[in-house]
Amino acid sequence: MVHAVELDHVSHVYVGKRGATLALEQIQLQVRHGEFVSLIGPSGCGKTTLLSLISGLLLPSAGTVKVAGEVIQKPSAKVGYMLQQDYLFPWRTIGENALIGLELMGKLNAQTKAYAMELLAEMGLADVAGKYPQQLSGGMRQRVALVRTLATEPELLLLDEPFSALDYQTKLQLEELVAETLRSRGKTAILVTHDISEALAMSDRVVVLEPRPGRIRTVVDVPTAIRETPPLAAREAEGFHQLFRQLWGQFEQMDAKGGAEI
Ligand code: ADP
Ligand code: MG
After folding, report:
1. 7 CA from centroid of ligand 1 (Å)
2. Of 1, 24, 185, 197, which residue is least crowded by CB atoms under 10 Å?
3. Interatomic CA distance for residues 262 and 258, integer angstroms
4. 3-class DSSP state for residue 213?
5. Residue 7 and residue 63: Cα distance in Å, rounded?
6. CB 249: neighbour CB atoms within 10 A?
7. pTM of the predicted model, to two decimals?
8. Is residue 164 lining ligand 1, measured as CB closer than 6 Å?
9. Residues 141, 89, 138, CA angle at the centre, nearest 5°?
10. Are 147 and 121 in contact (CB under 8 A)?
11. Does the beta carbon of 21 sit less than 6 angstroms from any atom of ligand 1?
């Protein structure tokens, strides 16, 4: 079976002035089509490095990264990357910003443009299409960033802490919207987050990484009752709290080891 994402013995070393850092060591990970996987772990455990390797922005020092069965050697149109910062262009309107990804890929035409405008409407942004980014709230800007990413129809979405700069209520609302949007389209997604609840509420599987060197510590399969419930209500589902405590315990053990970078 061809996986949406497959990492085989992936290690990554950064070489800098202060020597070499083994950021990831021997990562084995397979993600199924349509699966939603979260990566959690203390700061510096290699989460962003892992996404950069999957996106093709970085090449692994050892091992192979495959997306849809093909070895990734450079950034590909199959993969959409969404970051904590929205990187909207301030001099472009929201409607124009939504089209940037399509423009950069040379895929902008009447049909793809219509799809991007449909997505804007679906995200509740139709009324602000003529406004500029600085006129919008943080949550709205992140929705525009999501539209821009989805407009190019990537098979795989990589989300690096996309909600962490938002206030709590906006973050919960956006979790609902993103979960529903990705599920209804059957997209595969990998989310990096600091937030254990968010990981459990949104995912099919949670991968816990430990730092120095970055390794997979535990993988938790989220039970069906939680998986099939939208993120906000999932937090009330049976078994949620127990799993939260289990993962919290993992973080405490890593702290006790002096795991996180300050
Ligand atoms: P996370 O996203 O989990 O906080 P990162 O993937 O950013 O972790 O970093 C993993 C490790 O690699 C850390 O020790 C970090 O300091 C180091 N690192 C990240 N990027 C670079 C870089 N460009 N050059 C050197 N070291 C880096
Ligand atoms: Mg990071």
Report:
1. 19
2. 1
3. 10
4. coil
5. 8
6. 10
7. 0.93
8. no
9. 20
10. no
11. yes
Query: Is the separation of the CB atoms in 129 and 118 below 8 Å?
Result: no
141 lines ligand 1 (CB under 6 A): no
In this structure, which residue's CA is closest to atom 10 in ligand 1? 46
CATH topology of domain 1-74+195-262: Rossmann fold (3.40.50)
What are the sequence ranges of the domains in the chain?
Answer: 1-74+195-262
Ligand 1: nearest atom to the Cα of 160: 2
Collapse the DSSP code of 202 into the 3-class scheme (helix H, G, I; strand E, B; otherwise coil) and give the result.
helix
Angle (CA) 183-187-190 rounded to 5° is 100
Distance 257 CA to ligand 2 centre (A): 20
What count of Cα atoms within 13 Å lies in the side-chain half-sphere of residue 248?
8
pLDDT in tens, the chain (262 residues): 899 999 999 999 999 998 999 999 999 999 999 999 999 999 999 999 999 999 999 999 999 999 999 999 999 889 999 888 888 999 999 999 999 999 998 999 999 999 999 999 998 999 999 999 999 999 999 999 999 999 999 999 999 999 988 889 999 999 999 999 999 999 999 999 989 999 999 999 999 999 999 999 999 999 999 999 999 999 999 999 999 999 999 999 998 876 555 4
Q: How far apart, in Å, are the Cα atoms of 27 and each of 78, 99, 142?
A: 22, 35, 30
Atom of ligand 1 nearest to the CA of 212: 14
Q: Which two tokens mark 223?
A: 């039970």
Q: Which atom of ligand 1 is nearest to the CA of 209?
A: 3
| Ligand 1 pocket check for 207: Cβ under 6 Å | no
* CB-count burial class (<10 Å; 0-12, 13-18, 19+) for 143: buried
Mutate to test the pocket of ligand 1, among 18, 24, 49 (most ligand atoms within 8 A of CB): 49
